[in-house]
Amino acid sequence: MMEFKLTRKPIVAEDPDLREAGGFVIFEGRVRRFNEGREVLAIEYEAFEPMALREGEKLLRDALAEHGVLEAVCVHRLGRLELGETAVRVAVAARHRREAFEACSAIIDGLKRDVPIWKKEFYADGESEWILNQDASFQKPDPEK
Amino acid sequence: VRVRYFALFREQRGLSEETVATVARTVGDLYLELATRHGLTMPLESIRCAINEEFQTFDAELSNDDEIVFVPPVAGG
């Protein structure tokens, strides 16, 4: 089972419930107070939604293709988020812990690289800025996926 | 072609989408044309492009009914 979702409401924890799974790994990315030395008040997320869903589903499909991974769910928040709110949640169930950790890590890394979601940080000094992830990949489409 | 703008590009263009008449043959040429015309600041080397919701390389050729999105570096998570 896999599901990739975008939501404008606070993310509600939905965890896999599988008797075959011995390892569950959950990653939550939250809005933190400081980035690059600047005090952050809020973040606004924006997506190219149909493409983000397709790219996100590709990541989950790749994760499930790995041996032992049974379920992968990812939810990303859109709109304005305050400090401490969850921006993204990845939940993976696998037969064993190693597969679960690896799949969860691959999903969040892939999301930061290939899923068309952008964020604008709003700072305490009144300024704001679009963030350019260090790990976003440039001009590397992979037609095989 | 139809062009949609997101994030930094949406703000720089002041629009979410528009129909563009162009003689550009490739999507890369189209970006350079629009960047010059509308002051889009990101260099071609720093961005990606999507045609009809799929990532493509900048040498991809344009068709009339294509939907083009220039993708600033993504920043999910």
Structure, explained:
- The complex is a heterodimer of chains A (145) and B (77).
- Chain A is an alpha+beta fold.
- Chain A contains two helices and nine strands.
- The two termini of chain A are 19 Å apart.
- The model of chain A is unreliable at 139-145 (pLDDT under 50).
- Chain B is an alpha+beta fold and 77 residues long.
- Chain B has two helices and five strands; from the N terminus they run E-H-E-H-E-E-E.
- In chain B, strand 3 and strand 4 form a beta hairpin.
- Chain B starts with a strand and ends in a 6-residue tail after the last strand.
- The mean pLDDT of chain B is 97.
- Strands across the major sheet of chain B, in which order? 2-1-5-3-4
Query: Which stretches of chain B are poorly predicted, pLDDT < 50 over at least 5 residues?
Result: none
Shape of chain B: globular
- What pattern of helices and strands is seen along the backbone of chain A? EEEEHEEEHEE
Secondary structural class of chain A = alpha+beta
Characterize the main sheet of chain B: 5 strands, mixed
What's the end-to-end separation of chain A, in Å?
19 Å
Uncertain segments of chain A are 139-145
Oligomeric state, counting identical vs distinct chains: heterodimer
Count of DSSP H/I helices of chain B: 2
Biggest β-sheet of chain A: count, sense, barrel? 5 strands, antiparallel
Q: How many individual β-strands of chain B?
A: 5
Alpha carbon gap, first and last residue of chain B: 31 Å
Assign an overall shape of chain A: elongated
* Content-based structural category of chain B: alpha+beta
Secondary-structure element string of chain B = EHEHEEE
Helix content of chain A: 10-25%
Strand content of chain A: 35-45%
Radius of gyration of chain B: 11 Å
- Report the sheet-strand fraction of chain B: 15-25%
